[in-house]
Amino acid sequence: xxxxxxxxxxxxxxxxxxxxxxxxxxxxxxxxxxxxxxxxxxxxxxxxxxxxxxxxxxxxxxxxxxxxxxxxxxxxxxxxxxxxxxxxxxxxxxxxxxxxxxxxxxxxxxxxxxxxxxxxxxxxxxxxxxxxxxxxxxxxxxxxxxxxxxxxxxxxxxxxxxxxxxxxxxxxxxxxxxxxxxxxxxxxxxxxxxxxxxxxxxxxxxxxxxxxxxxxxxxxxxxxxxxxxxxxxxxxxxxxxxxxxxxxxxxxxxxxxxxxxxxxxxxxxxxxxxxxxxxxxxxxxxxxxxxxxxxxxxxxxxxxxxxxxxxxxxxxxxxxxxxxxxxxxxxxxxxxxx
Length: 338
Fold this sequence. Notes:
- By secondary structure, the chain is an alpha+beta fold.
- It has two domains: 31-180, no CATH class; 208-338, no CATH class.
- Helices cover 36% and strands 28% of the residues.
- The chain has helices at residues 3-28, 32-35, 48-55, 66-75, 79-82, 116-125, 166-176, 186-191, 257-278, 285-296, 315-322; strands at residues 42-47, 83-92, 103-111, 128-132, 135-142, 145-153, 156-160, 201-205, 212-213, 216-219, 222-224, 231-238, 246-253, 298-302, 305-312.
- The protein has a twelve-stranded antiparallel sheet, sandwiched between helices.
- Residues 18-27 and 325-338 have low confidence and may be disordered.
């Protein structure tokens, strides 16, 4: 074989190998929306396409308030229909009682969300504008805070209500290097490898901070005996062998083995109480799904980790979205945080 031909074949082989490695690494990387998020204390991600597939039979048409209907008419964007993915970074505020509240958020939203009509709406509502990294950043006043918005792709928005421009600038900078599969935040580098494959929703880091109240985490009316700044790895995956059920898995990383044992015991007691107190709830789609969640909940401890697993019907999410719960859980379950 001619030397030049051999050299050409080696070059082609090297290029193909490089591409194969890049594709493999990209397949192991977090979704792009999550990789664009700035440094934060917690990250939440949801893929709404499979969620809609699970819930389409149970969801009722939303009742739109006039302001939202005006936004839909002006931009052509309907969040219920057009949003496909959402990645949310949670930022702790130094002064939780200050004007910016206890947390701020940065979001990357993916779907049929961009276009000139949205630009026109943003321009009309912006108090100021900034050009950064080839993008226009619109500053929109909202409830005493400033929400910064930038279109960063044909189907992607970056949004942040962090008090300064630091976080929105970081997302625009990350977008410029998005082709590299592991240009991730510290949280993703530390914990994403623990997120199960095929998860349609997941969270890592101190994702309980927005639900923290009186030193505990409150969700669905339940006051959980967990510190508000606990580190979690949580996920929701389809239970493929069980039809339309979803698997919930939450791991809390405690300070030490003793703390994990104490919190596991407290959670076990809370679940037992919850099963008792939710038994009288009226029959209904959401209530039955909540009882199923509690019935299948299993709590275990391994060293400094507390793991909670459960199975639930998508009807629970649909019921919450539709406001079908007949009685708030907080009226039935004792407050264990005191």
